[in-house]
What we know:
single chain; alpha/beta; 5-stranded parallel beta sheet; 3-stranded mixed beta sheet; 9 helices; globular
Amino acid sequence: RNILYRTVFAEDDVEERKRKTASPDELEGERVAVDGYNVLSTIASSLLGLPLFLSLDGFVRDVSSLFGKLTKHYAIYTSLVLLLVSLSRLGPELVEVFYDAQVSKSGLLALFTRTAMKRIGLEGKAYAVRRADKVTILSGRGIVASSDSVVISKADRIVDLGGAIVSEVAPELVLEIGSLLRESRTRDIVR
Length: 191
């Protein structure tokens, strides 16, 4: 049920989301606000070999509920490096990464993010905040990176940066929900 809830949407919602979706190539010269744990959990799920779903709205989502467990796992730091290197190649003007402060060690992860940005030469900042999803939207800066449905619906411009990275790192783990639904319907008709 969780998979369907996070991957199937009404046609109007799908069209609206696709209309405001930017490709990663459009980040050059832009300000980017990153919903930290959301993007990193997608990337980390791929590194851990967990299934991901290409939703009807075109965003890749993990359904693993890694959120709170990630800060204790090596995959978070590997995911962060992949994210920051990818961003540096895309050439944004400024990157701001927001982490949920209530998650253990978020302040430490924000510090690590700022340090890694400096070493990579990526202009940006990272923060541990009360509500990362809300702050990411309210930052009002350029393009928002997230696959969170609420963030997508409220952002003016959105990019599925986690999905783009996963599509390069482990495309075989991404299951297209539309194909799965069509297969399911076909089996039901044949029965």
